[in-house]
Specification:
This protein is α+β, with helices and mostly antiparallel strands. The chain has helices at about 1-20, 135-140, 155-165, and strands at about 25, 30-35, 40-45, 55-60, 75-80, 90, 100-105, 115-120, 130-135, 145-150, 150-155. It has a single domain (about 25-165), classed as Immunoglobulin-like (Sandwich), CATH 2.60.40. It has three helices and eleven strands, in the order αβββββββββαββα. A six-stranded mixed β-sheet has the order 1-9-8-4-5-7. The chain is globular and about 35 Å long. It starts with a helix and ends with a helix.
Length: about 170
């Protein structure tokens, strides 16, 4: 009996350690077409949580293609440093605020045939990533007033409701 208890306890502790190592990945970013015709992103952290870094990156789509594939390389995007107190809000996809310590990677325009990820990191409330995956084709298919989040088109109201569920 003691051996079964010890084994069960070990399994529970190991499961807790393994699940507690990585921050949660939540659908808290939306991509959309701005009134100016440019692609925009909306960063929507939980509550009044701060964001400390933001990243936009891309890779060619197709079979066996991922950001981690050999030779995938960064072709379009940028990343910010760990800036304190970045709040949520909307911004053009390739125009981070000048006050952020952002570094461009590759071309600063959306490329057809590429998968994009826009994500932020929040160290608050247990630490989590907010993210969205999208393509130029996903954005081209949006109706006025729609955003792309959680692998689908939705209204801004639906995104706010989705965010509430995620948080």
């Amino acid at each position: 009996m003691r051996r079964a208890w010890l084994t069960g306890t070990t399994v529970l502790v190991a499961a807790g350690v393994l699940t507690g190592c990585s921050p949660a990945q939540l659908s808290l970013v939306a991509a959309y077409n701005g009134d100016d015709g440019k692609p925009w992103i909306m960063l929507a952290p939980c509550g009044r949580n701060d964001i400390t870094s933001v990243r936009v990156s891309s890779w060619p789509t197709g079979p066996d293609r991922s950001p981690h594939a050999p030779g995938a390389g960064q072709e379009s995007g940028w990343r910010s440093g760990f800036d304190p107190g970045i709040g949520g809000g909307s911004l053009p996809l390739f125009e981070p605020p000048a006050s952020w310590s952002a570094e461009p990677d590759g071309e600063q325009r959306i490329l057809p045939g590429h998968q994009y990820i826009a994500e932020f990191y929040s160290p608050e409330d247990g630490a989590y990533y907010g993210q969205v995956y999208f393509t130029a084709e996903d954005l081209a298919g949006l109706e006025p007033g729609e955003v792309w989040a959680d692998d689908r088109a939705m209204t801004r109201k639906e995104f706010r409701e989705h965010r509430a569920e995620q948080c």
